[in-house]
Amino acid sequence: MSRNAPSGDPRPPGRWVHAWASAPQPTAPDNMPPAPFTRAGLVLADATLRQTVRPSTGGDRIRLRFSNAFGGAPLPLTAVTAALPAGGRAGVAAVEPGSVRPVTFRGRSSVVVPVGAQVVSDPLDLPVAAGADLTVTVFLADGQASDSITSHPGSRTTSHLLAGDHAGADDLPGATSTDHWYFLSGVEVWSERAASAVVTLGDSLTDGRGSTTNGNDRWPDRLSARLRSHPATADVAVLNQGIGGNGVVSEGIGPTALARLDRDVLAQTGVAWLVVFEGVNDICTTAATAEAQERVVEDLCAAYEQIVVRAHAHGIAVYGATLAPLGGNEAYDDPDGHREASRQAVNGWIRAGGVFDAVLDFDAAARDPRDHRRLLPAYDDGDHLHLTPAGYRALADAVPLELFERRS
C-alpha cells in the first residue's frame, strides 16, 4: 500500500491530488455576506452556506479543505455536506436528490478552524467526474465572531445563503444569492492513476474578470477542458490561484505572489507545473516615470527568478506567460508610454531570459496584429485590459499541451 493511501484502504496505490482550489483572501466590506448574514462582529450565525465548484480531474473519493487564513476569530463549522448539483449546473441552490453525503473531520461532524489555519476533511466516498460540478454546503450554528473572514470574492459563481440548518436539504427555497466563495479553499481527489496538477498563479486575468458568471470560461477552465480531451494529459488538474488586483511584489489585493507562493502553490497536493501570468498590476500601480518603471522591471524579473528557484526546489516546472496588452486602459496606460515600455521589457526578458522552463506567449495570443499595444477588439471586455470569454479561450488555445505530458 502507498504510504499516502487512506488508513485501512485496500485499494491499489495512489495519491491525493488537488482537483480544485481557490486562493484565500481577506474579505473587503463590500464582499462580506449580504444582510442579514453579516452583523457587527458576527458573520453567518445560524446560517447555511451552499457553494458549487468544478473539480478539474475526477475520482471516487474526495477531501475538502477549509481556510481561516484571514479570519479574526476561530471558524466553527457545525455541519458540512457534499453533493451533486441539480442538473450538473454551476451556481444552483438545489442538489440531485439522494446525493447528499455528510463530511466528517476525524470522524466528527463538526470542526473548528483555528485563526490563520486550514483543516482537511476525512476522505469521503463520493464519485466526482472530471469537469463536473460539486456542491459543498456548510452550516454555522454560532457563526464566525469577527468582522474579518476568509473568502474568494472573484468566484464568478453564485453561492446561496439561508437562515437555519439546511446542510442536508435537497433545495434552499428563499435563499439569498451572492457571487462569492467563503471558507472553502480546496477539493482533493484520490487518484489511482497518479494524476498531477498545474497551478495558474495570476491576477484578475486568471481570476476571470470578464468571464461569464457560472459559465466556467476563464482561461484556466478552457485549458482544463483541452487537457482532458488530450489522452496524454487527461489526468492533469488545473488549479486557478488568480486574485483580482494582485501583484507579484507590489501591494495590491491579497498577499503578493511571492508572499502566497508557499500556501497557494507549494502546499497544494500533486503539483507538477506552475504557470506564472502576473505583473501588470506591479507595473501599472508604479509611478509612470522612467526611473520608477526601470526599478519595477528589475524587481519583477528578480521576483520571477525567486519563484522559479523556490518551485524547482519542490520539483515543479515553471512556465512564464508574457503580459497581455493594456493600451487604451484609462487607469493604466500613461500618455508617455512608460508602462507600455516596461511591459515590453518584461516580456522581452521572459521570452529571452532563459529562467522559465518554457514560455507561453499570451501577449501574442491576445494582441491586435495591427496595433501590438492593444487587445484584439473581439477579445477586449471593454476596458482595454480584461478579456472576453473568446479572449480567454485564445489564451488557453495558445498553451502547448505537450508541456504537461509526463515523461518517464
Low-confidence stretches: 1-9
- Give the strand tally: 25
Shape: globular
Q: What structural category characterises the helix and strand content?
A: alpha+beta
Query: What share of the residues lie within helices?
Result: 10-25%
Provide mean pLDDT, rounded. Answer: 95
Strand content bin: 25-35%
Largest sheet: 6 strands, antiparallel
What is the rounded Rg? 21 Å
Strand order of the largest sheet: 9-8-13-5-15-16
Structure description:
With 408 residues, the chain is of the alpha+beta class. It has helices at residues 204-207, 219-229, 257-266, 280-284, 290-312, 338-352, 362-366, 389-397; strands at residues 15-21, 25-26, 38-39, 42-43, 47-53, 59-67, 75-77, 79-83, 101-103, 111-113, 118-120, 124-128, 134-140, 150-152, 159-163, 176-178, 181-182, 184-191, 196-202, 236-242, 271-277, 317-321, 358-360, 367-368, 371-375. 20% of the residues lie in helices and 28% in strands. Helix 6 (338-352) links the parallel strand 22 and strand 23 (358-360). It is globular, with a radius of gyration of 21 Å. The two termini are 22 Å apart. Mean pLDDT is 95; it is low at 1-9.
Quick summary:
The chain is an alpha+beta fold and 408 residues long.
Topology diagram in text:
Blueprint: E1 15-21, E2 25-26, E3 38-39, E4 42-43, E5 47-53, E6 59-67, E7 75-77, E8 79-83, E9 101-103, E10 111-113, E11 118-120, E12 124-128, E13 134-140, E14 150-152, E15 159-163, E16 176-178, E17 181-182, E18 184-191, E19 196-202, H1 204-207, H2 219-229, E20 236-242, H3 257-266, E21 271-277, H4 280-284, H5 290-312, E22 317-321, H6 338-352, E23 358-360, H7 362-366, E24 367-368, E25 371-375, H8 389-397
Helix pairs in contact: 2-8, 3-5, 5-6
